[in-house]
Write a structure and sequence with these properties.
Distance between the termini: 16 Å
Bound molecules: adenosine-5'-diphosphate, magnesium ion
Number of helices: 24
Structural class: alpha/beta
CATH architecture of the largest domain: 3-Layer(aba) Sandwich
Strand order of the largest sheet: 6-7-4-3-2-5-8
CATH topology of the largest domain: Rossmann fold
Number of strands: 22
Strand content: 15-25%
Largest sheet: 7 strands, mixed
Amino acid sequence: MPAAAKSPLKEKPVPEPTSAPGTGLSAVQRALRKLGLLRDIDFALYLPMRYEDETRIVPLAATRDGEMAQIEAVVTESEVVYRPRRQLIVTVDDGSDTCQLRFFNFYPSQQKQLAVGARVRVRGEVRGGFVGRQMMHPAVKAAGTALPEALTPVYSTIAGLAQPVLRREVRSGLARAVLDETLPPGAAPHGTWDLRRALNFLHYPAPDVAIATLEDHSHPAWQRLKADELLAQQLSQLQARRARSAQRAPVLEVDSTGGKLHKDLLGALPFALTGAQQRVGEEITRDLAREVPMHRLLQGDVGSGKTVVAALAAARCIDAGFQCALMAPTEILAAQHFGKLVNWLDPLLAERGLRVAWLTGSQKKKERDTMTAAVESGEAALVVGTHAVISEKVRFRHLALAVIDEQHRFGVAQRLALRGKAGGDFEPHLLMMSATPIPRTLAMSYYADLDVSTLDELPPGRTPIVTKLVADHRRDEVVDRIRAQLAQGRQVYWVCPLIEESEAVDLRNATETRDELAEALGEQVGVGLLHSRMPTAEKQSVMEDFTANRLQVLVSTTVIEVGVDVPNASLMVIEHAERFGLSQLHQLRGRVGRGAAASACVLLYSPNEGGRVGEAARARLKAMAETSDGFEIARRDLEIRGPGEFLGARQSGAPLLRFADLTNDALLLDWARELAPAMLDRHPELAARHVDRWLGSKAEYLKA
Ligand code: ADP
Ligand code: MG
């Protein structure tokens, strides 16, 4: 997780025995650090992924095929054979039966340990073949030492960190860790264990435990860990929310002109707002009129009309005499996406002696200087662009509102950079927009410090998009479909995935597809190509040609992923659809069906040699074919990927849950949500210790 990697570390330095040059850390310490293991408590909370049972010795005769077993036996034969390949074959006898042990890689020391006559303790999976019992590469030690009383933990590890070393480090970290109670008296969820008991047990469970309860995390010890983790997360988010409520933002109230720009913009729109847009607009207006900075996530499916809502918020801000910044993750998107809104706003601003400024990374210095000067003087009431908008050199006269489109594509650092832009002690109001709806439980948990508004209604007149799955060998039929659309004067997108590591190869693939289509469709049809490697100006001109219908077919890599808006496009073909993520497919599909015409999305997939598509890929394609509801898609995406990955791709810096699982632990989440505010009020020191224990130095980071 980048959050953890970048955050400053609070731990005392541990004395190092051997140091690699330049780093001051031993190889083991570097490996531990990579696993996030620094403080004693980190070790204590590093739980085994599974266990081995070394507590019992069983007679060979009682073992079954496929069973993990530990035996003690005498070596009766030991030889190295060379055919079919070099291996050590050892026969052992425990009095009940014999077993053959095979080793393909072995050291002289092992050979010595397994000399004829030696008594050994052997642990491994018993296979009962025709030639009698066998174990491949079992673990071997001398017989007769005391048996452990608990199961042996197996931790997930990385190269350079041997399991026994990690086990020893965790054991000593656990022994040193301060595990005193941080929950207020009587607050622990019913039936769960206290933390010290739970951790000692989970690292070293009694052998009679029902293993299934450890595996599915339903054991009372697990319940306590999950509860603690969820509580830490809720507490830290609540702290962030309270810290923000102490901050001040400009109060954006309707001025003496009665919100003239807002009114004029509403009048200039060629449509009426949907009910959802109106409702969300009011929510935002209320937030802006408060002196606490707004921190709102506006989520709505592709095409639900988020941009207009943002534009109206900008108008409110400008009516109150302040500046507004609008940011999109890419230049194409910034241009395409805000182009329309700028067209509406520009004349209205001009009447008031104000203007829109553009700021992007690829701008010529001269143009950029003009723009930044307009931003600094306040003449640019609206500043639109990429993250260049928040670069250090840009100084606002009085920024009061920042709108971030496709917020998951912006890092926490970029959001932080915004905070310094309002000037004085003020923070700007923040409106973040996302086309990927977050399921409710996730939103409650991860965005507890955000207010969420949802556009749950599409503008009227949209016709549903028909989605078809087509195997790649039926490409010709797809070309026929394209012809049919073109014959009706419609336009078509064809998306190629990023397949190769190298952009050059991707470009070649996309170029070939463009050439093939141009050839198949004939000379009258304009087929354009858009690729992330092209210079921005070229991309922009291709986009303009497509928007103006000078190009009828647009072949592109995923640069069109978000935001482009060409209502005349009625067919979307996605090649190698099995390689795309579910929400990405949904976003792409959202590029069509923007006008009144019936639209379709063709998902071309290539079965692999076995004639099959992987299970997850099949689930994604199926979901696409079955539903076009963004919330349903998000729910299935969550199901297919799990919350970690689902959010990982979206929210850099969000603390992912290691133990709790939001789909199964909704009750514990409710408990944590209820306890957190009371605990912050009545037991602030306990709350601080609890958050520090679980999130340590990451907690600071969350305040972003
Ligand atoms: P998204 O939420 O995906 O960003 P946009 O803001 O790009 O959606 O809006 C999609 C399209 O719908 C745009 O062409 C926009 O002008 C249009 N639109 C937005 N609101 C309405 C409305 N209330 N009625 C009709 N069309 C609308
Ligand atoms: Mg949008």
